[in-house]
Every structure is written in C-alpha cells, then in structure tokens.
Q: What sequence folds into this?
C-alpha cells in the first residue's frame, strides 16, 4: 500500500497548499515542504528496509521489491500496477530531495499566487513519481502526459520573459508542451501497436509490462515500435535534433521549474529507455545502438559548443545538460554493465549538480535581476561565499574527481570503451570542452572587472543549507558511490542481460 | 404491419418529446411565463430520458421499416436528451430569470419550443433505418435550428448566422436528396439494410451508386461541418447565442453522426471504393484545416467551431476503420466530446448571462478569469485539457480509443494526421487556458454573475466538469455502457 501513497502524497499536499493560501501567505510553503519531506522520508525508509537484490530480468516473470496491483479499465486489460525496484527507488529519492529543494529555492522568489504555484509544483512531482513507479504501459503514459500540464503552468505563469522580449515565457512553455505532447502521442501509437501485436499472438489484451516483455515481435515491427518509444524519450532527454525546447524552457522557467526540469524530468527519459525501450525491444535497440550512440556523441559536442556561446547563465547550464545527457545516452546503448551503472550515477550526479547550479543562478538573479553574464563580472569580491560555491559546482559539472559526476563519466567511458573504443575516445575529448564552458561561466560571471562596487547581500541560512547539502551529497557520490551502485545493480544487470543477448545474436547474424 | 403496445413503448422517448413540444406550445399560447415554460420543458425532457430505461427491455425492435429501436439508438437518444437538457438549463440562465430583471428583451419562451422540436428530430435520426426517416429527421433537426441561431435577431451577427446556416443547410439537403435518388435508382430500395444487400450482391457498387453515395456524403458532411463543407461553421457558431451554439455542437452533430454510423454499418459496402477514399481524404483535411484555422482565432466561439471540425475529423478515422473497435470508439468519443463541448459552451454562456448584447466571446475578456471566478475557470481548464486529450480528462479516453482503432486497422496516414493535428491543437487550447490565468488587464470586463454555481445552469456545469474528470480517471462505466450499445445488423 505504500506505493500509491508515494504518488498520492504530492497530489493531496498540492491541494492542501492551494486551500492553505487563504490562511497565512507562508502556509502553502510549509505544507509543500512537509509534503516533500514526507515523500523523501518514505523513500529513505523504503531504501533502508527493502531488498533490492531482485529486479526484472530475462527469462522469468519480473521480480519487484514492492508491488501494488488493482484493476482499472478491464475492457483493455489495464490495471493500476505500480512496482518498485532499485532503479526506481533511486529516482524516487532524487525526486523527493529535489522536490524539497525546489520548495526551498522558491521561498523568496515566488510571491504571487503562492498556493497555486505549490499546487503545480507538487503535481509535477506526483506525476514524475508516477512515471517512475508505473509498470502498466497505459498508466505510464497517463503520468507521462499528465505531468506536462502543471509544468506548463509553472513556466507560463511564474517564468521570466527574456530581457529583449523576443522569447516570452508563454512561448517557451507552449514549445515545451507541444514537443513533449506530440512525441508522447507517437509513443502511445507504439504502445498500442505493441499491445495489439501481443493480442494477436496470445489473445490476451493487456498493457502489463511483465506480459508484454514476453511478446515475440517480428524484426521489422520491433524496429518501428522501438523508434516510437525512442522518439518520445529522445525529445525529453533531449537528444540533439529535437532538443530545442530545452534551452527556452529552462531559461524562462522559475528556479524551481528549472530544478525540476533538469533534475528530474530529463531523468524520466533515461529511466524510460532503461525500463521500457531496451527490455521491450532488445534486438531493435541493439541494431539501433550505433545510431543512438552517434546521436549521443553529437549531443555532447553540440551541447558543449552552444553552452560556450551563451550569454544567459541559465541557457548555458541548459546546454550543458544536453551535453551531459549525451554521455547517458551513449552509456545506455553501450550494453555494458559498467557503463549502465555509470549512467545511473551520472543521472543522480547531474540531477544534483544541475539543480545546484540553477539554484545558484536563481540566487544571483534575486540579487542582480539579470541572468546576462555580460552584466555580471567581478562578482567574486561583491558577494561572500556564493562565487566560491559556484566554482565548486562548476568543477563538479566538468567532472572533477571527488564529485559524483567524475564517477559517472568515468564509469561510462570505461564501460563503453571495450565494445566501442572509438566512440569512447571521442566522447572523452568532449570532457575538455566541458571544462571550457564550465570555467568560462565562472570567469564571465565572477572574475574580470566589476560593473559596480556595492556589496551585495550574502547567502542566508536557507540558501546556505540547500547548497551545502547538495555539495555534501555530490562529494558522497564521488567518494563512496557503492550504496547507490548496489541498489541499482540488480535492475541494471537485468537490462544488460536483455541487451547483451540481443547484441550477441546480432553479431552472429552479421 | 400492426403496431402493438410494445412498439409504442419503444417509441416512448420520441413520443414524450413530441408531446412536450405540443404542451409547451399550448402553454405559451395560454400565458407567457418564462419559468413555467422552462420547468415544463425540463420535465418533459427528463421524462423522455427516463423512458429510455423501460425501452431497453424491449430492444431491439423494428417499428415499421422506418425506425429501428435498439441499444445503439438508446445510447444516442440518451446523449441527445442529456445534451438538450443541458442546453435548456443554460438557455434559462442566458435569457435571464425574471421578466423585470436584466436579460433577453424579446420573447423568451419560443427558444425552448424550438430546442425541443430539434431534439425530436435528432431522436428520429438516431432511430432511422430508412433513407426517408433519415431525411425527415434531418429536416426536423435543421429547420428549428435556423430559428434558434437567429434567435437574437436584433444582433446582426445572429441574424447573419441564421440565414447563412439556412441557405447552406438547404443546399446540403438538396445534395442529400439527389444522392438518395441516385442510390434508389441503382438499389431499388430506401432501407439501409436492403441497400446494403443489393450492393453486396453485385460485388463492387456501380458507379451510379457510388456517385449517389458520394453526394449523400456531401449533404451529411455539410451538417457535420467537415472540410471542405465547413465554411459556415465559424460564422454560425459566432453568431448563434451561446446555448444554441452548445446545442449545435453537441446534440445536432451527435444525431447526424449516429445515423451515418448506422448507414455505414448496416450497408458496409457503402463505404467501399471511391467513398472510402473520399472519407479518408475528408478526415485528413478536416483534422489539418480545422486545427490550423483554429490557431488564428481570437474569438473563443469561432475557435471552438474550428476545433469541432477537427474533432469530427478524428471521429471519421473510426468511421473509416468501421470494424473491430470502431463503433465502440465512436460511442465513447461522442460521449466525451458532448460532455466537453457542453462544459466549454456552458462557461461561455454563463459569462454572457444574463443576455445583454454581444456574447462574451473575445479571448481577452477571459484574461485573468481565474483570479475572479476560480471554479468557473477550473471548469473551462478541464474542458480545454479534455479537448486537447490530456490524461485525467474524459477527452483522453476518447482520443485513446480513436488511436487504438486507427492502429488496429493500420490506418497509418490517418493516425499520423491525428498526431499532427493534436500537436497543433494543443497550441490553441493552451493559449485559451493560459489566458485564464494571466494577470488582469485594465479593461472593462464581463463576468459570470456572482453565485452562478447555485443556479440550474451552474449546477449542470459543475456536474459536467466533475463527470469529465471522473470519466477521465475511471472510464470503465462509460465503456460498459457503450459496449452494451453495440450495433448488430439485423436481417
């Protein structure tokens, strides 16, 4: 019974926030904070007590650490089927943590319609948790689409329009919505195709993930269906030709929105690839792997180059996400256990470091009222602590040893080197460009001649706690990632089994 | 053929609705009283709705060769009656409650009479299994609608809309009649199933029959406002008083679509060959043109008009598939569409209530509505999301069904058009939605009356919104209902 509560808590909390607005102005903030703390605590409790050595693997019915199953729409064999394994647990924990942070970081930023803001924020997080827990394809799609609506409101109503007025927040929000909605519908078509193929084979109409894993797909059909899934996940990840919603959405969103987008929403795509696209269509994925890895490579360099060219600090971080997600994409399609584990660590570390960078740029914005780096410069002397902490996270972002990002990238490159040495080698050189844009961000914003001499207010307790907490976590991930790796290892080895079998078959066929 | 009491029982909904029309007419002649007319109409329509329950026990039953009362007809009769009831409650709020207070300056009572007459026409249509009943039903549905659209005749746009609808509708009817004549010349019969069997006997329908069927399709496409016969839609929707526009978008279209489904199901070959291709092309065109033109609108009634063109394009996909899930998908889609349209037009009606000149239909009048009328805005938000087909709303279930049907029948081009259409659609639905939440501008604004939710129209609207949400989360009851209403060709 705990799984539905993980989803319901944010939804109920969100409603309470809205109702609480009539009371004190800060009441919704406290309710939201409490909700997310509860969510995070439940996640930690599950982590402490659960057994995550079992996970779905080929050849047997999927094992889950915790499961919840009730009928829903009998007509189509759709049920409310939630399940938890190591990978989804880590993602839920990340959601809970970043949820708390996104409430905290909007404590001062959001002053209009506080209750409604937190309603949207909580509902996004509820939808995301739903995506991470659903193992019924219909239910998964349901949450996948549902979380777009509150995110749209978050960007459209509380976002910032760009200074020149060219890119309004509504434009960004609409672009985000249309990109993800259209690609989502393609996934729905693919889901229905999969279900109907399975139905024609067995006579059982079901949307259950466990059942659909057994479907025997003809090669051509499998490839087309896999593409349907890949398109949806590629838009959300984002993979380069379909990434253009991301910089706009990030730059225009309020800080909490950026934190959720970069920290969690992008991870739903990687999660979807690991959970659904690979196990459901292993052969087609193996065949598609070179293309996907090439796309990942392009993403790494394209993201890095464009990040370097940005003047808007949030757009810079947004493009750096494109670059980092390129590594994740390469890892997912490399088919090596090591690289896949690296992808998990990279997802967690990028979630934490990107969230921290967005929070920091949000704090800068609150002090300077601009995100334009041309108007910053020389801030090192004007704000205590903040520049130094930014330097730490920029260093983490470029993959400095000792931070989680290093562990993630290192595992990815090491793991994929064996099968695809060239791609690994080229991707490694992408790290150099990562350092370039990270350092240029620090240089432009904090060094150089100061634009003014007035001293800006330092960080208060709330800001300091958030950021230092994230820093500690990132160092933990960097120095001792073993607990995280252990938690996800069962899931990852399952995925790897599916994929490597398909790889060997493909290799022998050639 | 002898009519027994069973036959009369089967016709009860139609008979009661017709009787209500007579009673309402006499009541108006005796004494003009807005509330009394309203109560009489509501009572009659409710009674007709309730009478469907006993009818279900005697179905399926052919009442002469003209009408067929089966579960399919019952489902659509219920839909039409519910939609009509909703429109009547909206009309009551719209016209103004009391004679002394603000509201519609002319005679208010005839509106109810016209709506009930049109509803009776719709009931005939969904039971029709003969081309003559199809035509009678269609005309009975259309002719009162001319009056309804032009009801606010001192407003130029309303009058213009009424005349436009009359002329084009008459042209459509002419096409329909000519088509029927051609089909009759070839098949020698006017009954749906006989046409089907005659056409089946010859294998491929002859070119004469195909031409006839295509012309009939043109006539029906006029009423369903499918591209390229859609040109009247935005003007008429804009001109018609809001409750009437609601009626046009729901009851009227449902009735016409139901009869088309019955025609194509009972004589499957009618949708083969050229007609099949024409249908598919019309579907793609309706989806694309409807959605693209809706993007350009800044008037919410016109926008909904274009969006309805697109939605009937989606429905055509199920009609083209016409096997497997198709009939069920059409039922579910129409039910969710009726619910959603009622909600959307309901909000517009309440915003324009009581009547004082032009309806509140410009998009800017809705700016920042959320901060003034949060619940009314919540209703409109749910409706916009439902029209866009986002999960948690009834519209998603409908869209899911249509996509499932398309995939099942492997109509990839049509499914592709649907995906593109939905992506375009999201753009303008979101535009309406976000307008509701933007900060208020300093313009003279119109609002729904305070305490709108405590009157009949408001209660109905909230019920519709809750139903749209509940069906989006738990659609099983609706699916069961529609499954029982499957269409079984009778010998």
A:
């Amino acid at each position: 019974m705990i799984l539905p509560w993980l989803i319901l808590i944010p939804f109920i909390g969100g409603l309470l926030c809205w109702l609480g607005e009539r009371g004190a102005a800060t009441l919704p903030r406290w309710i939201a904070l409490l909700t997310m703390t509860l969510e995070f605590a439940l996640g930690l409790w599950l982590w402490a007590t659960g057994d995550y050595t079992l996970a779905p693997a080929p050849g047997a019915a999927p094992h889950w650490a915790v499961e919840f199953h009730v009928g829903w729409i009998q007509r189509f064999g759709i049920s409310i089927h939630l399940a938890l394994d190591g990978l989804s647990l880590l993602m839920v924990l990340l959601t809970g943590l970043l949820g708390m942070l996104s409430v905290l970081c909007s404590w001062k930023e959001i002053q209009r319609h506080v209750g409604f803001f937190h309603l949207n924020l909580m509902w996004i997080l509820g939808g995301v948790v739903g995506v991470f827990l659903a193992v019924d394809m219909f239910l998964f799609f349901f949450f996948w689409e549902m979380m777009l609506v509150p995110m749209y409101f978050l960007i459209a109503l509380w976002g910032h329009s760009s200074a020149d007025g060219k890119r309004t927040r509504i434009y960004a929000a609409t672009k985000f919505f249309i990109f993800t909605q259209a690609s989502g519908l393609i996934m729905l078509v693919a889901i229905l195709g999969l279900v109907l193929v399975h139905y024609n084979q067995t006579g059982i109409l079901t949307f259950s993930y466990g059942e659909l894993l057994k479907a025997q797909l003809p090669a051509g059909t499998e490839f087309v269906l896999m593409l349907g899934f890949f398109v949806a996940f590629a838009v959300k990840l984002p993979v380069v030709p379909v990434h253009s919603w991301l910089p706009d959405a990030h730059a225009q969103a309020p800080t909490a929105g950026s934190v959720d987008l970069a920290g969690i929403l992008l991870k739903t795509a990687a999660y979807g690839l690991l959970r659904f696209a690979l196990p459901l269509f292993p052969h087609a994925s193996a065949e598609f792997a070179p293309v996907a890895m090439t796309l990942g490579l392009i993403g790494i360099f394209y993201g890095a180059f464009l990040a370097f060219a940005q003047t808007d600090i949030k757009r810079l971080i947004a493009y750096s996400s494109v670059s980092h997600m390129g590594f994740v994409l390469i890892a997912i399609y490399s088919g090596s256990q090591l690289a896949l584990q690296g992808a998990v660590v990279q997802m967690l570390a990028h979630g934490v470091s990107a969230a921290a960078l967005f929070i920091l740029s949000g704090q800068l914005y609150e002090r300077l009222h601009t995100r334009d780096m041309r108007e910053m410069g020389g801030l090192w002397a004007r704000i205590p602590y903040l520049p130094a902490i930014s330097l730490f996270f920029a260093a983490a972002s470029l993959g400095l040893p000792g931070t989680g990002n290093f562990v993630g990238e290192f595992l990815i490159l090491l793991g994929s080197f064996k099968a695809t040495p060239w791609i690994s080698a080229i991707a490694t050189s992408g790290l150099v460009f990562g350092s370039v844009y990270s350092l240029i961000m620090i240089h432009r914003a904090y060094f150089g001649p100061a634009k003014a001499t007035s001293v800006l207010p330092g960080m208060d307790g709330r800001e300091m706690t958030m950021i230092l907490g994230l820093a500690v976590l990132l160092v933990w991930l960097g120095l001792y990632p073993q607990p995280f790796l252990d938690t996800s290892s069962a899931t990852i080895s399952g995925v790897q089994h599916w994929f490597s079998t398909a790889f060997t078959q493909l290799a022998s066929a050639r | 053929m002898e009519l027994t009491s069973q036959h009369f029982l089967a016709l009860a909904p139609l008979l009661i609705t017709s009787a209500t029309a007579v009673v309402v007419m006499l009541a108006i002649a005796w004494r003009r009283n807005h509330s009394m007319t309203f109560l009489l109409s509501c009572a009659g329509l409710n009674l007709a709705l309730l009478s469907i329950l006993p009818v279900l026990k005697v179905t399926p039953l052919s009442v002469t060769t003209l009408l067929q009362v089966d579960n399919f007809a019952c489902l659509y009769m219920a839909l039409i009656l519910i939609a009509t009831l909703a429109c009547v409650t909206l009309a009551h709020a719209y016209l103004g409650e009391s004679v002394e207070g603000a509201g519609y300056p002319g005679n208010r009572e005839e509106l109810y009479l016209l709506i009930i007459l049109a509803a009776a026409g719709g009931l005939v249509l969904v039971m029709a299994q003969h081309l003559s009943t199809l035509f009678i039903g269609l005309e009975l549905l259309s002719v009162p609608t001319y009056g309804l659209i032009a009801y606010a005749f001192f407003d130029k746009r309303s009058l213009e809309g009424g005349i436009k609808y009359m002329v084009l509708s008459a042209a459509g009817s002419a096409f329909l009649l000519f088509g029927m004549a051609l089909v009759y010349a070839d098949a020698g019969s006017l009954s749906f199933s006989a046409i089907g069997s005659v056409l089946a006997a010859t294998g491929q329908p002859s070119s004469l029959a195909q031409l006839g069927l295509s012309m009939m399709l043109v006539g029906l496409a006029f009423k369903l406002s499918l591209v390229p016969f859609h040109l009247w839609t935005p003007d008429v929707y804009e001109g018609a008083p809001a409750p009437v526009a609601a009626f046009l978008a729901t009851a009227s279209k449902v009735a016409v679509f139901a009869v088309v489904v019955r025609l194509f199901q009972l004589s499957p070959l009618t949708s083969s060959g050229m007609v099949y291709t024409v249908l598919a092309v019309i579907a793609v065109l309706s989806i694309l043109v409807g959605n693209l033109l809706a993007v350009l609108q800044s008037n919410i009634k016109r926008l909904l008009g274009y969006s309805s063109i697109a939605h009937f394009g989606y429905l055509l996909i199920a009609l083209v598939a016409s096997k497997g899930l198709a009939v069920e998908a059409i039922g579910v889609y129409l039910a969710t569409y009726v619910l959603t349209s009622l909600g959307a037009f309901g909000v517009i009606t309440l915003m324009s209530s009581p009547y004082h000149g032009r309806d509140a239909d410009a998009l800017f009048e809705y700016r920042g509505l959320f901060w003034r009328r949060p619940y009314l805005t919540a209703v409109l938000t749910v409706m916009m999301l439902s029209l866009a087909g986002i999960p948690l709303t009834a519209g998603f279930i409908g869209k899911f069904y249509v996509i499932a049907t398309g995939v099942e029948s492997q109509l990839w081009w049509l499914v592709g058009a649907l995906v593109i259409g939905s992506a375009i659609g999201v753009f303008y639905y979101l535009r309406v939605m976000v307008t509701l939440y933007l900060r208020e501008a300093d313009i003279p604004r119109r609002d729904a009356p305070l305490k709108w939710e405590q009157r009949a129209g408001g209660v109905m609207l909230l019920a519709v919104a809750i139903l749209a949400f509940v069906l989006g989360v738990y659609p099983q009851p609706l699916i069961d209902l529609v499954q029982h209403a499957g269409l079984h060709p009778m010998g």
Notes: Residues 313 and 413 of chain B are 13 Å apart (CA to CA).
